[in-house]
Amino acid sequence: MKNLLLIGLFAIIFFNMGTNAQTKTGKKGILLITFGTSYPEARKAFENIEQKVKTHWPDVDIYWAYTSGFIRKKLAKQGIQMDSPSEALAKIGEAGYTLVAAQSLHIIPGAEFHDVVHTVKGFSLVQKGVGKTNMGRPLVSNHEDLQRMARFFTQQLPVSDDEAVVLMGHGTHHDANIYYPGFQYYLNDLSDRHYVATVEGYPSLDNVIKQLKKEHIQKVTLTPFMSVAGDHAQNDMAGEEKESWKSQLEAEGFEVDVVMKGLAEYDEVVMIWIDHLKEAFDEL
């Protein structure tokens, strides 16, 4: 509802600017949309994505939007201004772009992704001058995506018989949480030592710990199944508090290693998002 109100507001503000935008028919732009992060060391993942996007579309302007109002407010206090998707789309329309390809940097097509889809698709209906908007799929949304990610992790983080890798996903109460246990099935096709668990969904860390004990695992490598190694990775996964995944695993007797690297820092993973953006861009 909040996004729809913002769309309506910006449509009124820029209504009279439509004729100027229409004089630049066919001008294309790219909008990259993510939850966001306030960790400076994690933002290098977004810099990597932008560099790859620029390589593929050197003559197209790139805009960014953060969906998290909390993150935007926190960054604003640091003097860093980030737009919401509605704000970014309004600026794009004002700048005269008539064709916009938006790429979600979310992992699964959950509630937040669908909110963004409604915002992006709705904007072309109310923003005068914006002729068409297309939305790229999130990281894993079909069979091929899941296969590519399973191959990537099993090759990127190989293990021996008494070792295992545990990926920390966010999880959600949305029906799309099914992608996490679904992804586990794809991992199982290639390895019985790679697991995915979630912070807020199923499977949980407790579910995975049972499997680790059953398989007599001695050493566990933790790494985020998230676009950036932000707050969840730094604190919930690898923090020193007793509730962190690292501390819980150590309390269960496992040796724990951490790979503090977001998915967007891996070029192979970024290429999946690039492929999805290409689909959206080519259909403009």
TrEMBL record:
Claim: tRNA processing is one of the keywords in the record: no
Record's signal peptide: 1-21
Domain of life per record: Bacteria
Keywords noted in UniProt: Cobalt, Metal-binding, Signal
Active site: H170 (proton acceptor)
Organism in which the protein naturally occurs: Marinilabilia salmonicolor
InterPro entries recorded: Anaerobic_Co-chelatase
UniProt name for this protein: Sirohydrochlorin cobaltochelatase
Any one Gene Ontology BP term: anaerobic cobalamin biosynthetic process
Pfam family, one: CbiK
MF annotations from Gene Ontology: metal ion binding; sirohydrochlorin cobaltochelatase activity
Binding site for Co(2+): H170, E200, H232
Keyword Cell wall biogenesis/degradation: no
